[in-house]
Amino acid sequence: MPKPISQLIPDFREALKDGIKDAAENIVEGLIEEGPYWDGIFARSWEVKRGQKSITTYPANMRSAIRSRKAQDKPGNVKPLIPFIPNNENLEGYTIGNMTRYRGYAMDLLPTPVGRQMGNAPNKTAPKDWYLRYVLGGGMQKKYDEAMTNVFKKY
């Protein structure tokens, strides 16, 4: 019977564990950098869960923050906005999502005549279709590849 990979190549397993955690952090950083930033609520609402899980929205009875009338500047360093990323000992991957109730609108995935208006609002703070461009246009893959390359260089 062949040995499990955990016995054959412990360094590879450790590198893979570190790499997917770093990749999750890089991907969330990219989502914050590319996404809208009106008052920081959406940017601070990304969540990372171990495994394939659903990302629930904030409770409906939770009071909304008072929204500013004018967009604030996105901070130059978004690292403090990145959520806690749990360890992933079993290499089950991560689920990344946003907890705001309006996430589908902020990501330009659902039509709306208010707010971002599918990225057509004159006061938008992110380009039209920013999310799809990031996920499908190679931005997310680039963040993943950078993390994995950097980690495997160490081993």
Jot down its keywords.
155 residues, mainly alpha, 5 helices, 2 strands
Describe how the helices and strands are arranged:
Elements: H1 5-8, H2 10-34, E1 46-50, E2 94-98, H3 103-106, H4 130-136, H5 139-154
Antiparallel strand pairs: 1-2
Summary?
The chain is built from 5 helices and 2 strands. The protein is mostly helical and 155 residues long.
Structure description:
There is one protein chain. This protein is 36% helix and 6% strand. It has 155 residues and is mainly α. It has one domain (5-154). It has a two-stranded antiparallel ribbon. It is elongated.
Give me the count of strands. Answer: 2
In the sheet with the most strands, the strands line up as 1-2
Biggest sheet descriptor = 2 strands, antiparallel
Mean pLDDT over the full residue set: 89
User: How would you sum up the global shape?
Assistant: elongated
Spell out the helices and strands N to C: HHEEHHH
Helix/strand/pairing category: mainly alpha
Radius of gyration from the CA trace? 18 Å
- Through-space gap between termini: 28 Å
Helical content band:
25-40%
Assess the beta-strand content as a share of residues: 5-15%
Number of domains: 1
